[in-house]
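[Q] Does anyone have a clean structure-token version of this?
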Amino acid sequence: MTNKEILKRLYKDYTNKYLNKIILAAFFSITLAASTSAVAYLLDPAINELFINKSETLLYIIPFFIVIAFIVKGGSLYLAKVIMINVSEEVKKDIQTDMFSSLIKADTQLVDNKHSGKFVGNLMNDVNMIVNLISTAILNLFKDSLTLIGLLSVMFYQNWKLSLIAIIMIPLASFAAKVLGKRMGKVVNEQMQRAGVLTSYLIEIFKNHKLIKIFQKENYEKKRANNLIDTLKESSRKINIVFVRASPIMESLTGIMIAFIIFVSAKLIMGNELQVGNFFSFLAAMMLAYQPVRSLATLNLSIQQGLAGAKKVLPIIDNVNEIKDEQGSSDLKINNGQIIFDNVEFGYSIDERKILNNINLEIPGEKMTALVGHSGAGKSTILNLIPRFYNVNSGEIKIDDQSIYGATLYSLRKNISLVSQDTTLFDDTIKNNIAYANLDASQKEIEEAAKLSFADEFINKLPKQYDTLIGENGVRLSGGEKQRLSIARAILKKSPIILLDEATSSLDAETESKIQKAISYLTKGRTTIVIAHRLSTILNSDKIYVIDMGKVVGEGNHKELLDSSEVYKNFYEKQIKKA
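[A] Here you go.
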């Protein structure tokens, strides 16, 4: 998108709805411009009538009007800024809401391909830059341009010759701002990229703090952090230096102009072409015009920052998901939950190798089917295709003779529960983590689910029981306790299809026994697909598929596979020897 297209988009989608408030801010900007101009204008009668003519009649009137002008000036500025602050916060909320909505609905693959820290940076830092562009740019454009017009009117009214000399400063300032703006665009992009890298790094550090400690890498990570912070500091330093370069340029131009104006004015006063009162009024107007000229000259720098942020945020908002409801999709109707994979092929991208090759599975409804194979064989990928976390490259997946691609995503995922070895919990209470499966569940239903998953054994020992906060991803709980909460959540959902991905891995025998009992209840009478490294946990499965290198190389029950599948037999014998 070009800069012009970005600005049009921001206006259409985010500022247009607040146009009435912006117009009100513009009205107060007009009032501000008029009162500022009035201050400069009143110096003419103040000098001539009070100091030269010594008029007692105007002794109280002129100071009174000057006070009123300043009060109106200050009040108008305050109201204009408050209105634009409110607008900017609304715009910020709208952009962040749109971005979060896009991310929460985004394809799994999009989220997988980008570090979460960069999304956080986009949501916070980049959006702030866009909002600063909208709030600062709009207000300054109205406020400063109108004020400048008003002050120029006073200047021309007092003396057109001096005014022509003074306005030479404006194109010079604009040229300087244009040159600085190009430089600002480069350093802003550089700074935003480095800020994103630092955010990503910090998230990694907090997530892996135990790993850092056990390998004694505190000093190593400190050096890495120092390097990242140092590069970010350099970028920020460059931005600030470029930004303040406008000050000496404007100061120099103003100094030259004032010196030349005083020289010319003295000549005009000596030639009786200019009155002293006119000169002071003109000089005041010119000095007051310094601030809006400077602000307008540096406006381009703020715009560059906002545009750089918009170029990162808008593509996320505009992201079009590949995984979505197809036209004419209907709700999935579950009968017994039979799942069919018909010649399914899948790779995470067209350029990468295929993860699954010509997969054909017939998973019976209301029974347990196990997937067995070495790590990386493609078992978890098969599970991820059923709720459409990813779309197949070719082939078909059906549930009760209905293509999952013709079903709405909501109805498909509503009928599926997933319990994996990587248990995901929120930094919330135990109650809310279980109830995440059904936000309308009663306390009794939550406690029943906990009881059936054997989670109530440890919950009732906690000081606050179900109201206990468990920390980030359940950091205050053991692996087995987290797994039981995950199963309780799945029980509460009451889905007819259950996906179990290494749900009992890395657990001690006693905990595994309890979780197996919980899983037995969870899967009873439901279509269940289970992945387990320990064959002892799936020996009684109604059907077992052996997956190797993305292909089905065997199927049957345990006894049948011992006779028919060399891969399964070797897999089983190795586990027997280990035992």
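[Q] Thanks! Anything notable?
[A] The beta strands are 339-346, 356-363, 368-372, 394-399, 402-403, 416-420, 497-501, 527-531, 543-548, 551-556.
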